[in-house]
Write a structure and sequence with these properties.
Structural class: alpha+beta
Largest sheet: 4 strands, antiparallel
Strand content: 15-25%
Shape: elongated
Radius of gyration: 22 Å
Length: 294
C-alpha cells in the first residue's frame, strides 16, 4: 500500500497545478498516515518524460490491459509513456492480471428493451451533439463495428427505426449507461455483447459483459495495489504504467522557473535513482512485447 500511495502522490503532482500540489494530493489520497508519508516523501518531485511534465492519467481498474491515450480520446495524441500495456505479473506461469482481485475486473449488465430505449433517447442526442428533439427511434440492433488495440470499443453501431448512430470511443460509456438507480456511466468500453433478444424487430433484451472500471489510460489503481502487494517499489509501479518516464525535481522541468533544488529534495531524489539492494528481487511485469522488465 505504501508503494501505491507514493506512486499516486507523484502521479497527482503531474495532474495538479499551482502551489498547493501537496495539499491537493493529500486530500485526494485521503486522511491516512501512510498517505501523509507519501506526500512528504515526494515533495518537490514530479514525473517527467523527455524534460516535460507528464499527463499522468489514471483509472480504477484496467481489466488486464491499459489503453493508448488516442484510443480513448481522439483529441489527444499518443505519447511514448501512454501507449497501453499488458497489465500482468510474470511471477506465476504465463502471468495473471494484476487487477484481477478488483470487484470491477469482470462484470455483466442487462437491459430490457424499454429501459434501453429510454436511456438512449436521452443520451444519444446529448453525447452526439444532435439537435434538440432528435427522434432516436426504436432500437433494431446494437453491435461493435470496430475495436482499438487494447480491445476496447472504438465504434458502437446502434441501428434504430429512424437511422444508424455511431458512438465512438469513451463516449460509449456515456451513451450506454447502466440500468440501475442514477443510470451511471458504463464501467468500461472493454466489453462484449453477449446476448440480444428481439420482438417484432426491436431489441427486447441486451446483455453485455465487460472488464475494468474507468477509461483505461495510464495507471491502473487496482493493478498498482496488486504490484505493491507483490513486493513492487513505487519506482517499479511508475515505470510499468508510464514507461520511459523519470522522477525529477520540479525545478528541472522545461518551461518552469529555474530554482535551485533544495538539499531535502535532492535527498528524496536519491531514493529514486540509487540501485536497489537486491536487484534480483525487483518486481517483474509483462510489457506489450511480452518482455519482462524491471
Amino acid at each position: 500500500r505504501r508503494g501505491t500511495l507514493i506512486a499516486m502522490a507523484l502521479v497527482l503532482s503531474g495532474v495538479l497545478s499551482g502551489g498547493g500540489k501537496g495539499l491537493a494530493a493529500a486530500t485526494m489520497l485521503g486522511e491516512d498516515p501512510t498517505a501523509d508519508e507519501a506526500v512528504l516523501a515526494t515533495a518537490g518531485l514530479v514525473l517527467e518524460y523527455r524534460g516535460k511534465l507528464t499527463r499522468s492519467y489514471y483509472h480504477a481498474t484496467c481489466g488486464g490491459r491499459t489503453a493508448p491515450v488516442d484510443e480513448v480520446w481522439t483529441d489527444r495524441a499518443r505519447t511514448g509513456y501512454l501507449k497501453g500495456i499488458a497489465d500482468r505479473s510474470m511471477r506465476i506461469g504465463g502471468g495473471y492480471p494484476l487487477c484481477s482481485d478488483s470487484p470491477h475486473f469482470s462484470w455483466r449488465e442487462e437491459w430490457d428493451g424499454r429501459t434501453l430505449e429510454r436511456i438512449l433517447e436521452r443520451t444519444i442526442p446529448r453525447e452526439l451533439e444532435l439537435p434538440e428533439g432528435t427522434d432516436v427511434g426504436h432500437v433494431k440492433s446494437i453491435k461493435v463495428s470496430h475495436r482499438g488495440p487494447s480491445g476496447r470499443v472504438h465504434d458502437l453501431e446502434i441501428e434504430t427505426t429512424t437511422r444508424t448512430f455511431h458512438v465512438s470511443q469513451d463516449k460509449v460509456r456515456s451513451v450506454l449507461r447502466r440500468p440501475v438507480d442514477g443510470e451511471p456511466s458504463l464501467r468500461s468500453t472493454l466489453i462484449r455483447i453477449e446476448e440480444i433478444e428481439k420482438e417484432a424487430g426491436r431489441v427486447s433484451r441486451l446483455v453485455v459483459s465487460g472488464r475494468g472500471n474507468g477509461h483505461g489510460v495510464g495507471m491502473c489503481q487496482s493493478g498498482a495495489i496488486g504490484m505493491a502487494e507483490g513486493g513492487a517499489l513505487a519506482r517499479d509501479i511508475l515505470s510499468h504504467y508510464y514507461p520511459g518516464t523519470r522522477v525529477r525535481p520540479f525545478t528541472q522541468i522545461d518551461g518552469l522557473p529555474v530554482i535551485a533544488t533544495s538539499p531535502r529534495t535532492a535527498e528524496r531524489l536519491r531514493a529514486w535513482t540509487e540501485p536497489v539492494s537486491d536487484p534480483g528481487a525487483t518486481f517483474q511485469t509483462a510489457n506489450p512485447e511480452g518482455v519482462a522488465r524491471r
